[in-house]
Amino acid sequence: MEKNKTGKYLKYAIGEILLVVIGILIALSINNWNNKVQDEKLSNLYYQDLLLDVESDLEGLNYSINYSDRVMNSIDSLIEALQNKSYASVNQDTLQYAMNSYYRIPGWQFNLNTYKELESSGNLRYIGNSEIRSAITDYVNLIEGVAIVRERYTEDIISRAFYIDKYVFTKFSDNNELLSIIDFEGLANDQHLINYFARIAMRWVNNKLSFQGIDRQAKKIQETIISELEKLNK
Q1: What is the pLDDT of residues 9-63, one digit of tens each?
Q2: Of the candidates 80, 125, 179, 225, which lies 20 to 30 Å from 57 by C-alpha distance?
Q3: How far apart are CA 45 and CA 222, in angstroms?
Q4: What is the pTM of this model?
Q5: From residue 18, how far is each of 12, 15, 26, 119, 175 by CA, in Å?
Q6: Whole-angstrom Cα distance, residue 186 to residue 176?
Q7: Would you give the distance in Å from CA 156 to the centre of its chain?
Q8: Alpha helix (H) residue ranges in the chain
Q9: Read out DSSP for 26-65?
């Protein structure tokens, strides 16, 4: 009799333990599922924010590439006009543009807010796609490298501005606007200065190539993020 009771109690106890274990396993499974869903939501949001940052950068890069082209072309026109001494017959706006822009290498703050937030908060794990993480790291390194070169270019050009300044005179118009009067004849007779403009033109070529390199990397990131978002939202 006692043995039967003990056996029954033991069965009940084992059954209750199994129910508790099963309940715990179900709870853990639900918790893991909830965590996975929450992580996917956060990943989705971060990918969308990264995409917006990159698209903002692409707009700025497009402007800088086009601006570099315009400055390069105006400097080329200036060099040709000075070498041929045809500055009087060339479009004066183009020559003025070259003189006013040769030292203004474009630069702006790239939009890395989301990446910096992920990095500082230790949440880079939400960018589960290793290809995207690697591409963004390369992107940041490229931007930093170009920024250093741009700064050196700008410093060098500005430090040598006195070569050109002696041929540029400023005065106020009747409307109190500041006007620049350029001695193109003096410039045309200064071969050293013409050579210097040629070196500046090459720097603008390199500047444009740098922006194009960043642009290609940004587009690569853009395409990969769009692909990843499509997978997450299926």
Answers
A1: 666 666 667 666 666 666 656 555 555 656 678 888 888 999 999 999 999 999 9
A2: 125
A3: 15
A4: 0.78
A5: 10, 5, 12, 44, 93
A6: 27
A7: 24
A8: 2-84, 92-101, 113-121, 130-159, 162-165, 184-188, 191-232
A9: HHHHHHHHHHHHHHHHHHHHHHHHHHHHHHHHHHHHHHHH
